[in-house]
Write a structure and sequence with these properties.
Layout: E1 3-5, E2 8-21, H1 23-26, H2 32-36, H3 39-42, E3 54-64, E4 69-72, H4 95-101, E5 111-113, E6 126-129, E7 132-135, E8 141-145, H5 146-150, H6 166-172, H7 174-178, E9 182-185, E10 189-190, E11 195-199, E12 208-213, E13 218-223, H8 230-233, H9 245-262, E14 265-268, E15 277-281, E16 286-290
Parallel strand pairs: 4-5, 5-8, 8-9, 13-14
Antiparallel strand pairs: 1-2, 2-3, 3-4, 6-7, 10-11, 11-12, 12-13, 15-16
The site of zinc ion has 6 residues, from loops.
Length: 292
Amino acid sequence: MNFAVADIEVNRVEEFVDPNCDPMTFFPTLTPEIVARNLDWMAPQFWDTARNMISLTMQTWVLKTRHHTVLVDTCNGNHKPRSYFPAADMLNTPYLERLSSVGVKPEEVDFVFCTHMHIDHVGWNTRLENGNWVPTFPKAKYLFAQKEYAQYLPENYIDGKAPMFVDVFEDSVLPVIAAGQAQMVAGGYQLNDRLTIEPAPGHTPGHYIVRAGTSDDTALFVGDAIHHPIQIAEPHLSTAYCIDQKLAAQSRTRILEDCVEHGHLLVPTHFDPPYIGHVRRGVQGFQFVPGR
Ligand SMILES: [Zn+2]
């Protein structure tokens, strides 16, 4: 087990680490001055100063509650053509073996939570079987935000243009819907007394976070509301992939305030080791305290 929150056991399944993310293009409003004032606490753990690069870990959080096994986000997936993202193009990783090593077989997954429908969060939703994409987790309900789904319907295209990653929607979301395993969630949704979904829009229109645990011991699985620790000290920094940069910053700030106020554990999708941490109030913005 990686850690526990209340009576939930949480494990981590890594797909791969992409060490080649250029922060200056990833965060369009990042400046050398902002980097300089944060380098002390970021390097070398969260910042490769020699190359001026950051890395993004691709991982799934596996939650075992008293009654259910739940996956939060499903990485990039195997055998998927992604020429525009070479790190994830036609992957062949032992992801399912790694899932099995934390005691979970595909047929044992009860729920798959996809914080949003980007390439690196829905990939293992499906796998290739005889040339067709089929749900990887045959007995699971996959929870998607209705608002996230709606943006991929041609009648909702803005200026006739499909949103980012429409091919991902086709090979990693539509087959789940066709199999009758999708559950569309509007706004917040309480699965049980330990797991709740809450909207945190901005990165995408329907992006949600997962609140897990009890009122005494809570973890927030925040998906891409926060990509990198620099956004804790500098919550105004949104990424080039955030559809609404301002709204993304508002959602991020709200999450960080919640963590500070109530001592919640912050569990993002893409942080490097130790992957998780707590948040304190900082000189400006917030301060990241890595670890459980
Ligand atoms: Zn992501």
